[in-house]
Design brief:
Its EC number is 4.3.2.1. It is found in: Cytoplasm. By secondary structure, the chain is mostly helical. It contains 18 helices and six strands. The strands form three sheets. It has a two-stranded antiparallel ribbon. A hairpin with a 2-residue loop joins strand 1 and strand 2. The longest helix has 37 residues. The chain is elongated. The mean pLDDT is 96. The structure holds arginine.
Length: 458
Amino acid sequence: SSNQMWGGRFAAGPDAIMEAINASIGFDQRMAAQDIAGSRAHAAMLAATGVITDSDAQAIREGLLTVLSEIQNGEFQFSTALEDIHMNVEARLKEVIGEPAGRLHTGRSRNDQVATDFKLWVRDQFDAAESGLLALIRALLAQAEAGADWVMPGFTHLQTAQPVTWGHHMMAYVEMFGRDLSRVRDARARMNESPLGAAALAGTSFPIDRQMTAEALGFDRPAANSLDAVSDRDFALEFLSTASICAVHLSRFAEELVIWSSAQFRFVTLSDRFSTGSSIMPQKKNPDAAELIRAKVGRIYGANTALMMVMKGLPLAYSKDMQEDKEQVFDAADNWMLALAAMEGMVKDMTANRESLAAAAGSGFSTATDLADWLVRVLGLPFRDAHHVTGSLVAMAESKGCDLPDLTLEDMQSVHADITDNVYSVLTVENSVNSRQSYGGTAPDQVRAQVKRWKALV
Ligand code: ARG
């Protein structure tokens, strides 16, 4: 038999394969609450503008709440023949309230309906991402504040570069997640225009009030072009690209935690609550949460790529291709929120091993730049010459199997006769980090100033 929603011109129902490729109810039922909120706003507006009667609108609005509670209580029978959440809800509404249900779809199409539902869903996820990022940033600030002056090695090429502080390293991620937060807020503000009332693509001849439905659904204004309103999936693409960039940040941090928690580094100890054991090696404590966070960028960026490819080349206005937007966004959103929460939990619970950090901070000739700077500042050497002299001293220390501060003054003077005792003051890692007082540098005072600035923001 033909479809009860659109089957007027059809003599036969769809092939089973047609139904299987066409139906979205298996996933878009996640938008039930948004669909019902949109329909309730639409019905109230239709009554306010005199398109339907108050009593019909009343029946529709109450009936929709009944349907919503059936869905929330798991009593609702979803039907693949009814394709999607929109038609499933409307068909059930008809069973619950009868004839007035047929008036709900006046001046509306599934095209503006699905765009509205999906926007409402994505908007909630932007809000969830904002909360998740704020919580993660607060956890990082607590780590940074506690360890503002704990020294550790800073790396380039994963080779010892210059000493930094634990707080400084944590604050680097605060900056990254802070930009993610700002992207979330920007995108949310940009997407908050209502598609409802764009109808199929051209608008409607009914005297609808799009301002009224926009306000009822918390949108800032109605979208200004009906063709664009039903075709726009920028908001989903911005969600996915914002999620992708954030997932890259999460992945880089996760990678550091994996390295830092190894027996070779011992920079951090992850809590038991965020670690797992091995079924064969009794000594193991594995950073699985960090590894999974590191991996999530794969599927999140995959979703971003997938939807970009779905949207490219689609002529205006709606095409069924766009139904493929939801699974990508749902999966990316679920995994983004999970990754944020897992990272927040790990950061809150982890212990920085201050002694290991300090021991590592001094190895690998990490204060060589401080020595070269001293040669410039005190002896007046050109930096290139100072670099060369320091390089020779590093080679000497390496051949003696010691660190720079362990070289004797005679050793030093054999490379450059004017070096004095005073040089040793700059060879400690504490002196090194304390001297990096330039704005945004690693000196503990600078780190504390940034912690303070961020605390006022989040
Ligand atoms: N299930 C559809 C989707 O997710 C709803 C819109 C259908 N519109 C249409 N003209 N067939 O995109």
